[in-house]
Specification:
Blueprint (H helix, E strand, L loop, with lengths): L1 H9 L1 H17 L2 E4 L2 E4 L21 E7 L4 H8 L8 H11 L1 E7 L12 H14 L4 E6 L7 H9 L4 E7 L10 H17 L3 E4 L10 H13 L5 E3 L10 H7 L10 E4 L3 H4 L5 H14 L4 E2 L12 H8 L6 H9 L3 H4 L2
Parallel strand pairs: 3-4, 4-5, 5-6, 6-7, 7-8, 8-9, 9-10
Antiparallel strand pairs: 1-2
Helix pairs in contact: 4-12, 7-8
Length: 342
């Protein structure tokens, strides 16, 4: 060994070569620590395999679809331009069966103007008649346009029809401008009567152009909701119009009208719109629902023969969001009884 050491000292080129070999070995050899000792990977314990993927989320049926539509022949002609037969309860129940959904709420679209209220009574009567065909499967909500002088009388009349137990308000479809003082008075009077009757409401909130309410318009609606704290309200479309971040305004402002005891939200249309969004966006939507309260999130498809996803399609869409399985089960098992007051 002494002779080898003496040889290396006398030959600097050899020393340089040996140093290069050592550095190369250190750079290109992977090391791991095993039992406190650093060892080359070839000597260490085997690396763990890839992490097991979580089981796919299951959304195979629902107790209630809170957001479906049918239309009379008159309204069907308005939407389609004519020539298409109206699709009623038979078509809807077939779609419910396809998705293994037990019951559905039909939201009358009688709030659409013609441009007067001539179709309001016929439309609400049509929905009531279709609900009566499947009384164990279907529930009816009266469509009311607060701007019509007949609104309060039609509210009372329609709620006395068999199977009609709630109110659908569509601010955009009714042309309600929440920055207009006269419109605000009309909607306030309607809420006064709704509170007296103690019936549930499903509301679509947007301005007449379909944009989110802002400024005084939002403040005026919030005032109405705050003045009627016992009215049980389900906000359509993630509490916005498809999804426009309005849900965070409801949650963030202390006087927005959101009440964890009486405020509900449905998933219709908004989840379908964002189903192919980046994961971060879908996680944000799930976070919003958690802030709202998963127990107050309602399954809704927005099914209409002209538009909207079927209940089965909506179930598939729901399973593509990063909820927990327990959260999905909570949403799908919600029969709406707290909101409906039944």
């Amino acid at each position: 060994m002494n002779a080898v050491a003496a040889f290396l000292k006398r030959n600097p080129m050899v020393r340089l070569l040996m140093l290069a070999v050592a550095v190369t070995f250190l750079l290109f050899t992977r090391w791991e620590y095993t039992n406190g000792e650093r060892m080359p990977v070839s000597s260490a314990a085997p690396l763990a395999g890839p992490a097991e993927l979580p089981a796919p989320l299951q959304a195979t049926g629902a107790a209630l679809d809170v957001h479906t539509h049918i239309a009379s022949q008159a309204l069907t002609d308005m939407f389609s331009g004519g020539g298409i037969p109206a699709a009623g309860a038979d078509d809807l129940v077939a779609r419910l069966d396809e998705g293994h959904v037990e019951r559905a709420i039909i939201l009358s679209a009688a709030y659409f103007g013609f441009p007067d209220d001539s179709n309001v009574i016929p439309e609400n009567d049509y929905v009531a008649a279709e609900v009566a065909k499947y009384p164990d499967r279907l529930i009816g909500f009266c469509g009311i346009n607060p701007l019509y002088a007949s609104a309060l009388g039609e509210l009372d009349r329609c709620l006395n029809l068999p199977g009609m137990i709630g109110v659908k308000l569509h601010l955009e479809g009714s042309g309600v401008d929440m920055a207009n003082t006269r419109h605000v008075r009309r909607l306030t009077a309607l809420f006064d009567r709704i509170a007296e009757l103690d019936v549930p409401v499903l509301i679509h909130v947007a301005d007449p152009g379909g944009l989110p309410l802002a400024g005084s318009a939002f403040a005026n609606l919030a005032t109405i909701l705050n003045e009627h704290p016992t009215v049980r309200i389900a906000h359509a479309h993630c509490a916005g119009n498809t999804d426009d971040d309005t849900i965070e305004t409801w949650l963030r402002l202390g006087n927005s009208g959101y009440n964890p005891e009486t405020s509900f939200v449905d998933i219709s249309a908004c989840l379908a719109f964002h189903v192919d969004a980046p994961l971060a966006q879908r996680e944000l939507i799930v976070w919003r629902f958690r802030k709202w309260g998963i127990e107050n999130v309602l399954f809704g498809s927005d099914y209409f023969v002209f538009d909207g996803e079927t209940p089965a399609e909506t179930l598939d869409i729901l399973s593509q969001y990063p909820f927990t399985q327990e959260e999905i089960d909570t949403i799908l098992s919600n029969d709406g009884s707290t909101w409906l007051g039944r």
